[in-house]
TrEMBL record:
Residues 1-27 form the signal peptide. Involved in the assembly process of the P-ring formation. It may associate with FlgF on the rod constituting a structure essential for the P-ring assembly or may act as a modulator protein for the P-ring assembly. NCBIfam families: flgA_cterm. It comes from the Bacteria. It comes from Pacificimonas pallii. This is Flagella basal body P-ring formation protein FlgA. Belongs to the FlgA family. Keywords: Bacterial flagellum biogenesis, Cell projection, Cilium, Flagellum, Periplasm, Signal.
Length: 227
């Protein structure tokens, strides 16, 4: 059973730290570093004066569709995903190894579930005060308009591994191809042969000449031949 301190810490931390440390955007689940951080933040929330002994860095755990549990066990903490996996983290006196206090500041969290592949809107996120982690995204402009690389649960901090530039143009989309000269602009219809986000260089086909052209995707979804 979870005691009062653990329940409070689990409430604070439940589903909080997915993507806590930098890692490739394709990575999923929890790393050993994530588990260590969850345990350390639980101790910090209690003010226990104890420190964690790092778990085996080779360990990885699947994503959790439920709220993570943090329970007391003899000599440490048990972090678990109900019905899936669990891992014990051993504790020691803080004098042996004290984790540096994380800087405090404002970061961004999800207001509602953001599904994988969804483009993030202003109403999907809100600021939150607390301990900052290296991978947290702090700027709204970076998050708004980006696509989620994984499902982001409510109140979960948004990290760099959770977002990527959203596609502005998709393969086979009809597009407007533009070319600028001195004092004039030429515009023609075409079809995208590739998908791309803003700034990406993609190949398109001129609808009239059927010639293949390379251009850059603009914010408005047009294909600009010359920058």
């Amino acid at each position: 059973m979870m005691n009062t301190h653990t329940a409070r810490a689990a409430t604070i931390l439940g589903l909080l730290l997915l993507g806590l440390m930098p890692r490739p955007a394709a990575a999923t689940g929890f790393s050993a570093a994530d588990i260590d951080a969850i345990a350390a933040d639980t101790l910090a929330a209690r003010g226990s004066g104890l420190a964690t002994i790092p778990v085996d860095p080779r360990l990885r755990f699947d994503e959790c569709g439920a709220t993570l549990r943090v329970d007391d066990v003899r000599g440490g903490l048990r972090i678990s995903c109900p019905g899936s996996w669990q891992v014990n983290v051993r504790l020691t006196s803080a004098g042996a190894a004290v984790r540096p206090a994380a800087p405090q500041g404002t970061y961004l969290v999800a207001v509602r579930p953001i599904l994988r592949g969804a483009v993030i809107r202003p109403q999907d996120i809100r600021p939150k005060e607390g301990a900052l982690r290296p991978a947290y995204v702090l700027e709204r402009d970076v998050v708004i308009g980006a696509a989620a690389t994984r499902t982001i649960q409510p109140d979960m901090p948004i990290s760099t591994a959770m977002i990527k530039p959203a596609l502005r143009v998709h393969r086979r989309d009809p597009v407007e191809i533009v070319s600028n000269g001195r004092g004039f602009q030429v515009s023609m219809a075409g079809t995208a042969r590739q998908s791309g986000s803003t700034g990406a260089r993609i190949e398109v086909v001129n609808a009239s000449s059927h010639k293949k052209i390379s251009g850059f995707v603009t914010d408005s979804g047009k294909i600009k031949i010359n920058r």
